[in-house]
Known about the structure:
Elements: E1 4-8, E2 11-15, E3 17-23, H1 26-42, E4 45-51, H2 56-65, H3 70-76, E5 79-83, H4 96-112, E6 117-123, H5 137-147, E7 153-160, H6 166-173, E8 178-181, E9 184-187, H7 194-200
Parallel strand pairs: 3-7, 3-8, 4-5, 4-6, 6-7
Antiparallel strand pairs: 1-2, 8-9
Helix pairs in contact: 4-5, 5-7
Amino acid sequence: MKQTSFSVCGESLSAPMHICGFFDSREQQYEVIIPYIMEGLESNDKVINILEANRHGEHCRCLTDSGISITDKLVSGQLEVLASENTYIKDGMFGAERMYAMLEKTLLSASRAGYDSVRACGDMVWALKNLPGTEELLQYESNLNLLTPKHSCSLICMYDVSSFSESTIKDVLLTHPYVIKDGKIIKNPQYLDPLELISNHSDFISSLLKS
């Protein structure tokens, strides 16, 4: 696996890396991910953004306003803006194994296409819909820590801290080696190895919705 570097929150880091991004506003989210996306597109990285379909127009405008040539990058395939409805919750349900397999296929395909690395940002707001399979969310997040070390990639899972319950935020922390909070990235002291997590925390999630 090729060792690659990337920057986020002003820090120079090395891939692979699985990151949890906690944000309390759309503005705060974009302050972090726009430079991360731009750097990837200016280098030889594949960049994937996953968010709800109704946000695609706003998202692409934000990228364009930041000086990114959206059309060129989309046509070349270097940038993909995907819908949560066609990925995480395809057919109205979430499947940890299905999403894991899709991501693994994407990482392998990007490598074969000659990209140095993959940068992916996924907005996790879909999990608040409580659709079938949502209870597999943290199984999926934990399993990503078995996948990422095999590939040159950086994955940012974006959580709106004002929407998710405190218990869910605490559980999510267990599955990410690095965390972004208040515009800074740190090594997460609460992270647990996926095998340890699976054996000791069988009831990962009680509710994804605020009571």
